[in-house]
Design a protein that fits this description.
heterodimer, A: 259 residues, mainly alpha, B: 252 residues, alpha/beta, Rossmann fold, 6-stranded mixed beta sheet, 9 helices
């Protein structure tokens, strides 16, 4: 029984990977966007942010853009469930004997795999632009957490919004402010009280901070690059991810059954 | 033994004023070909959706092979195959990849990443079914390049692969050429023991059914064999159907 469910998870995940490999435009955009942000914006911010913080601005951008692009890529991939729903492919999946949670797990696994493959390319290209590559098992776990949190975020968006157009519009509205207020390019310090409150509600903030905490761990730049407490970041990332996945899974399943 | 039992089934969609299904009851015996007829909006697709576990009923009961469609969803899904009214294929995959995904999700075969690595039984069964419906030349082509009729054949192959006890066909032959349509019906007829639940607008297809159930405005207005309907109303099945709808004041 477990083997059957795992086989289903693998089949759904493989479908997402095949879709990405066959959609060259999406593949190119997904690679170009983070690389442009890291190399382009990172360099532009050098004379200002780099000078004030004493950090290499390209490396700083890399440690922000990498978790952000993983989060965004997986969340956007989850929204493609709506596309399946509109082409009736979702109905085909829902009438199979496999559990709905296995279907969601397959989707999360596939989109995460796709995002991690893209992240691998981004790391290689970032290294070409002079970003020191510091890899550890903990760093990989943090990147995986970015994928899972993004999956939960996308699932909640899909579950709350029934059609593709509204889901994509609201998704953009929810993602773009996070790039600014989660400290993706610049660590957040000295923001006004109300912006601090808004920023605190954004899951990406804790993913970025956690990524930097692991990347800069043991270096003299840690204090400048990391703005929060490590334990607090871990607790909030786990909390956001668990709540998103649980609520999103239950709400999505309920909405499909009770149209 | 009964393949399908439906008792006082009611469905009201969220925000709707009227019931889409309003106390529908019928029985379908094992191996029977059952046809649900009715004008647009009569409730045919709603009934099929509840029986295939994709929609929850508001009240009433329905059982497939003795299993409750609400309480025993997972087991019901193992017993049924479905061809939906709307196209429901993944356009990014090949024809065979669509079939393989379905076969794994039904637990018919273990997951393998490619056609060559799939068990020989799978490859034999897919080749046989594809050959039957003339799908074999396109088996490894992307669905995106297939014609509407070929896509329909693919959906039918996909539904038959798990060897279901009850096959739900919601307007299945739309887009099929006459020969493919004839081949499909010949195949379905030859499959002894397979119960077919058909919704269609083609009255010549309804004519081949063992039992016809006519729905209008969410209610059963007639139920019986095509011959009994014809003898009661006179003329062809089409005449009987139109006379029946007119007598109930619903849209034809």
């Amino acid at each position: 029984m477990i083997g059957f469910q795992l086989g289903g998870v693998a089949a759904i995940a493989q479908r997402d990977v095949l879709k990405l490999l066959r959609d060259r435009a999406r593949l190119a955009v997904n690679l170009a966007f983070p690389v442009l942000l890291i190399a382009g914006l990172g360099s532009v911010l050098g004379p200002t942010v780099g000078k004030v913080t004493g950090l290499n601005s390209v490396t700083l951008a890399f440690t922000g853009v990498l978790p952000a692009s993983l989060f965004q890529s997986v969340a956007a991939g989850m929204i493609s469930i709506v596309e399946d729903r509109e082409t009736d492919f979702a109905r085909v999946l829902f009438v199979t004997p496999i559990s709905r949670f296995a279907l969601i797990a397959g989707k999360v696994g596939g989109e995460s795999l796709v995002a991690l493959v893209q992240a691998g390319f981004v790391v290689v290209l970032a290294a070409v632009f002079g970003v020191p590559v510091r890899f550890s098992m903990v760093f990989v776990v943090v990147l995986l957490a970015c994928c899972l949190c993004g999956a939960g975020f996308g699932l909640v968006t899909v579950a709350a919004l029934p059609n593709q157009r509204s889901a994509m519009q609201v998704f953009q509205f929810l993602i773009i402010p996070q790039y600014l207020l989660a400290g993706v390019l610049v660590p957040l310090r000295g923001v006004s009280a109300w912006l601090g409150v808004v920023s605190a509600a954004m899951p990406l903030r804790y993913l970025v901070d956690l990524t930097r905490a692991v990347y800069y761990s043991g270096t003299s730049s840690y204090g400048e690059a990391v703005t929060g407490a490590l334990v607090g970041d871990v607790v909030l990332v786990v909390g956001f991810t668990a709540v998103f996945l649980l609520c999103g899974g239950l709400l999505f399943s309920y909405r499909e059954r009770s149209r | 033994m009964l393949a399908i039992e439906v008792d006082e089934l009611v469905k009201r969609y969220r925000g709707a004023v009227d019931n889409a299904l309003d106390g529908v009851s019928f029985r379908v015996g094992e191996g029977e070909m059952f046809c649900l007829l009715g004008p647009n909006g009569a409730g045919k697709t709603t009934a099929a959706s509840i029986l295939t576990t994709t929609l929850a009923p508001t009240s009433g009961h329905a059982r497939i092979a003795g299993l409750d469609v609400v309480a025993d969803q997972a087991r019901v899904r193992r017993e049924i195959g479905i061809v939906f009214q709307q196209p429901s294929l993944d356009l990014n995959l090949t024809a065979e990849e669509n079939i393989r995904l379905h076969a794994v999700l039904y637990g018919c075969y273990p997951w393998r990443p490619s056609w060559r690595l799939m068990p020989a039984g799978y490859r034999r069964q897919v080749t046989e079914l594809a050959g039957l419906l003339g799908l074999d030349p396109w088996l490894h082509s992307p669905v995106r390049v297939l014609s509407g009729g070929t896509r329909r054949k693919l959906e039918i192959v996909r539904a038959l692969l798990p060897r279901p006890q009850v096959l739900f066909l919601d307007e299945p032959t739309t887009g099929l050429d006459p020969r493919s349509r004839r081949d499909l019906w010949a195949y379905l007829r030859a499959r002894h023991g397979l119960t077919v639940f058909l919704t269609t607008h083609y009255l010549e297809e309804a004519e081949t059914a063992d039992t016809v159930c006519v729905l209008a405005e969410g209610r059963v207005v007639e139920y019986g064999s095509p011959d009994s309907l014809k003898s009661f109303y006179g003329g062809s099945l089409e005449d009987a159907y139109l006379a029946l709808l007119a007598s109930h004041g619903g849209p034809v």
